Amino acid sequence: MKPKPRTYKEDGSKRRVLVVTSVQAEREAVLRGIKQTGGIDVLVVGVGLAQAAASTAMVLSSASYDLVINAGIAGGFPGKTDIGSLVLSSEIIAADLGAETAEGFCPLDQLELGTSRIAADVEFVRWMEQALQHQGISVTTGRILTVSTVTGTQETAEELIRRVPEAAAEGMEGFGVATAARLQGVPVLEMRAVSNFVGPRNRAAWRINEALQTLEKASSVLTEVVR
After folding, report:
1. CA pair distance 143, 163, nearest whole angstrom
2. pTM exceeding the 0.70 threshold for the entire prediction
3. What is the Cα–Cα distance from 70 to 44, expressed in whole angstroms?
4. Mean pLDDT by 10 residues, the chain (227 residues)
């Protein structure tokens, strides 16, 4: 049975969803998937945590939304997901936000200076996972890392897994988008289609078009949220 979407509005008013991407190609894939923009705004907020946080905060300060989704393509960790599949965030983690010590990396939380982890909206993640599986899309729900530098070596990939063993994918904007959403009290989710594996940089092996096609297909289920 196809799952029913979460109801955000109890007064019968139309729900509004903000989908943010880092680049235009991702935005176009989402737009092809939803086939309409009524109730869903899809915007490009730029590359990197800082740019994404500032741009998303500006949008959220000028309009009211019921959900924020950071959508795009990403690197997936081998053994956790497959190229061409989709990853939904259970938690969005700023993987390199902290301090380097003689004992190794110390995250912001352990420094007691704030948090580097923001939980995704559990109920909506669960609904999305079921809806995507209903559409025949291979989907993994797990922790998505936000990094300032895209991983390009096996050594760095292994270090990230040591820090967050449950990591499924890495991107560059999620924690910034999630921070802006949290400050406005809006539920957030990160949705990433896997174009390559995290590890040694090999652009020739990236399957960006396949990932964008997955993102397009996954975005089609969002129309159920605003009906």
Report:
1. 12
2. yes
3. 10
4. 51 80 97 87 96 97 95 97 96 94 89 93 92 92 96 95 95 97 96 96 92 96 79
